[in-house]
Amino acid sequence: MYKEISINYKNNLNHQDISTIKQFNNSFDENEVKIDYIDNKIKIMLKEIDINKLKNIIKEPSNNTNKDIYDDILKSIEGVKSYGLKGNKRKYVDYNKERKVTNRKEKELKRNQYYYAKDNQFSKTINSLPEKYTNKIIVGDSKQILSNIPDNSIDIIFTSPPYNFGLDYANNQDDEHWEDYFEKLFSIFKECIRVLKYGGRIIVNVQPLFSDYVPSHHLISNFFIKEKLIWKGEILWEKNNYNCKYTAWGSWKSPSNPYLKYTWEFIEVFCKGEMKKVGNKDDISISADEFKKWVVAKWSIAPERNMKKYDHPAMFPEELVDRVLKLFSYEGDIVLDPFNGVGTTTAVAKKLNRNYMGIDISSEYCKIAQERIKNIKGEVGLFADE
Ligand SMILES: C[S@@+](CC[C@H](N)C(=O)[O-])C[C@H]1O[C@@H](n2cnc3c(N)ncnc32)[C@H](O)[C@@H]1O
After folding, report:
1. What lines the ligand 1 site, CB under 6 Å?
2. Helix axes 51-59, 15-27, angle to 10 degrees
3. What is the pLDDT of residues 136-166, one digit of tens each?
4. Residue ranges of domains in the chain
5. Total-model pTM
6. pLDDT at 97
7. Ligand 1: which residue has its CA nearest to atom 22?
8. Which CATH number fits domain 119-374: 3.40.50.2300, 3.40.50.300, 3.40.50.150, 3.30.450.20?
9. Largest CA-CA distance found in the chain, in angstroms, rounded
């Protein structure tokens, strides 16, 4: 059995085209791939292929080769996105046979997907966010500010809370006993859940303090799960940051106490009530290419480089917010960041035609966040690979 791909041309194939197809067939075993042709059509019959071998052949074509035909073949094969890997080869047929689960649906029902969130009592009523909070940067303690916000009025929350690393923020202690830290954080997250609409998302960027052996990303996830949100998934934000220690003192190159290094942070994604977020097709801002790349849940993005300029010790980069908002929200949605800092979330929300509300306990940070908003002149396409 082969996976078949057809290519139709306007005109019938000429001698050079046919010679190219023959060369192709001579280069590969017919148990891997072969090409049939007739009139203006070619049919690629594909089982498995070493795609780099094909690329090398195309790079150094022999005489009487029609490069366009080769390019079309490569493009068509690369267009097939589901395949398995076997050594250097992509396997297009039977690649998941061993792993095929029979009666998948019934088994899924029996297991009861996200069982922990099924008996939630969330209301589906939607309320509007009062104008005095819409598109505003607000100074204050999030717990107190959020207590004035109606239930079910926010579409998406994206935030990075203070991590209790001992950083020098303008206004708050960042070195509390862990129990006090989590108690305070969770009381704010409870408010976040309340103000989130049914079907809304709360997405939290977490960097655990590994050297304290406190897995904040697990504790935070566990909190949301207990509050009956659906854990949609986890994105690894790869910062390629190798700047950390290797071992406990005196245990270099020894199993006695090696220190694990982390070059990434976590982005935990939760949904309230259901995973599907209804929206208008015209309000989608993600491109097909971005979607294809970003659903692969490991994002390589450099850390923010402008922290000095904005005078904030723990910003996340705009590109991170750009991806999160394009992937998980629609234009016109209301985006909340309850730990808005110098306003990276709110600035990007504005650039992407979302409504926003940003809260931070520091008036200095809020002033900068406001300035950033003022300086936006409808720019889109911020990043090099867009
Ligand atoms: C990790 S920073 C967020 C930085 C932000 N993502 C950015 O790019 O600018 C956490 C922020 O939470 C703020 N914060 C701490 N406790 C707060 C509270 N109770 N209410 C509101 N903001 C708070 C701090 O002032 C700090 O700016």
Report:
1. 141-142, 160-162, 169, 171-172, 312, 314-316, 339, 341-342, 344, 359-362, 365
2. 140
3. 999 999 999 999 999 999 999 999 999 887 7
4. 3-91, 119-374
5. 0.79
6. 72
7. 360
8. 3.40.50.150
9. 78
